[in-house]
């Protein structure tokens, strides 16, 4: 009888601990849930919206890269998308051109951030000529940069980035979307922020693992910044010919406080 009582007590403690873990972050206070998911997301997907010109994004970058290196749960697929709104198109295009050219990531992201915030070269995220010169100075060939800048592949990704950011309902950057529906606005408490991302992103992957057939083969972990934007395709999106960016530019989004 005593043995059964001990087992019951241990089981109750475990259940209480699980319930407490589920309440670690509260909807409405720590994150919001979109009524319509922005992507056809698989469990464990984390999207980071940012802008090279954002001071908060620049301040968070070292901590973000550290989390990606040794703090991110192995089951998480991390996707980075440049916020595309108003006059931020130049920075978003630069982001995708760097990847279209096969330049080193995240090293080039760090160089762009430093150029903008330390060296006063903000023109590279607004002016095509300044951006092309910067890329050539960092090892790219002029003709390759010109081709990538106006490529269909880059334009398609820009269109998708714009649609995703608009659907996210974020009013600033940096910001995160987990599993296509949990919206997290970043703050300066980086340890708590990244723990929140791990907690929400693994909430559904745990259920997925429990339901996986015995002979199923786990997919390889997607590398940070190498996941293609197609994996973050807007929910219900149809494949269509790339459309040019809208000429009318909405008001610039203010960085998150």
TrEMBL record:
GO cellular component: periplasmic space
Ranges for region Disordered: 205-257
Keyword Signal found: yes
Highest taxon of the lineage: Bacteria
Subcellular location: Periplasm
First-listed, main subcellular location of the protein, grouped into a coarse class: periplasm
Database matches in PROSITE patterns: THIOREDOXIN_1, THIOREDOXIN_2
Record-level Gene Ontology MF annotations: disulfide oxidoreductase activity
Stretches with biased composition (Basic and acidic residues): 220-257
Gene3D superfamilies: Glutaredoxin
Residues covered by the Thioredoxin domain: 10-154
Cleaved signal peptide residues: 1-21
SUPFAM superfamilies according to UniProt: Thioredoxin-like (SSF52833)
Alphabetically ordered keywords of this record: Disulfide bond, Periplasm, Redox-active center, Signal
Pfam families membership: DSBA
Keyword Signal: yes
Family (UniProt): Belongs to the thioredoxin family. DsbA subfamily.
Protein name: Thiol:disulfide interchange protein DsbA
Source species of the chain: Cardiobacterium valvarum
Biological classification of the source: Bacteria, Pseudomonadati, Pseudomonadota, Gammaproteobacteria, Cardiobacteriales
The encoding gene: dsbA
